[in-house]
């Protein structure tokens, strides 16, 4: 004989157990100040005794909040982006911070820009999220334009190309990062320094390269155009530049790409750091995967994620609050890829 499924405990059951009105139980769930601590304690004990489980979805619907933040990844058609530890480190920190506010995260991703935008729109229209945190910046980004035009709460990790006066921004001072990396090499005696990248359009590259240019100019050293390595012919040009210009140091856009540059230098017969010094950015797991360990600037990814959640919650709780731009400090971590150049 089949047993009937056990009926779920309701607010009315809890109210009957304590001898209070159902509205008292409801306000206890909201930790409302109108209910005394003594009554709240009685209600909570009754909930534990009866095994009452709050219907979070129904409560969120009544409050008109989903208590969920949508986290927007860049569209992931590039293999490097899928394996970049920045995103996982940021999301883990964001999840820890969100849990302090009883908020969860929902990831928005896509293989193309259109697919990503469709997912973002669907998540918001179905009220599955209260707004979004963008883990990237992109020129003419349709997702940021959608969030802005519909007054949807959002925070951006990075420096957006537009809407800077109306968007909550959490970022590093990437110009200062570029200057710091360059000045560190200059102080170690390096005078011929290249800036190496595999991206050109991203704001993070442009800001870091500008900082490099400023430091080179301040020190009255030879200024080189950035070196982009994407296509096979780019690598041939890099080989020629290494032979003709003979740089003593390279600044690389991030740790993951720096590993490739170290391998490339080895293939070309240059030893790191004996023949060529390298500094990169992010201080990710890639910086200590193989020897020589990479000297890298720590951008404090976890702090970027935590502060982004804080800024989003602040905006959600007060839609009339002023937009803020928060800079996270950086730290240069000295390891094994830089040596001093003796003064002549």
UniProtKB/TrEMBL annotation:
> Would I find Cell division among this entry's keywords?
no
Q: Which UniProt keywords apply?
A: DNA-binding, Transcription, Transcription regulation
Q: Where are the transmembrane segments?
A: none
One Pfam family recorded for the sequence:
LacI
PROSITE patterns according to UniProt: HTH_LACI_2
Keyword Plastid listed: no
What is a single molecular function from GO for this protein? DNA binding
Q: Which CDD domains does the entry link to?
A: HTH_LacI, PBP1_MalR-like
Tell me the leader sequence span: none
Q: InterPro entries from the xrefs? A: HTH_LacI, LacI/GalR-like_sensor, Lambda_DNA-bd_dom_sf, Peripla_BP_I
What positions does the domain HTH lacI-type occupy?
9-63
Protein's name in the database = LacI family DNA-binding transcriptional regulator
